[in-house]
Amino acid sequence: MMSTLPKIPRGAGIGAYAFLLPALLVIGLFTLAPIAYALFVSVQKMDLVSGRHSFVGLRNLAYLVEDDKFWAACHNTMVYVAVVVPLQTAIAMALACALNGKIRFKRSFVTLLFLPTLTSSAAMTMIFMWLFNNNGLVVQFLQQHFGHSVNFLGDPRWALGIIMLMNVFSTIPGYMVVFLAGLQEIPAALYEAALLDGAGPFSRHWEISVPQLTPVTCYVLTMGLIGCFQVFDQAFILSGGEGGPENATLTFTLLIYHFAFKNYNTMGLACALAVVLTAIIFCATLILNRFVQPNGANR
Question: Family, per the entry (predicted)?
Answer without folding.
Answer: Belongs to the binding-protein-dependent transport system permease family.
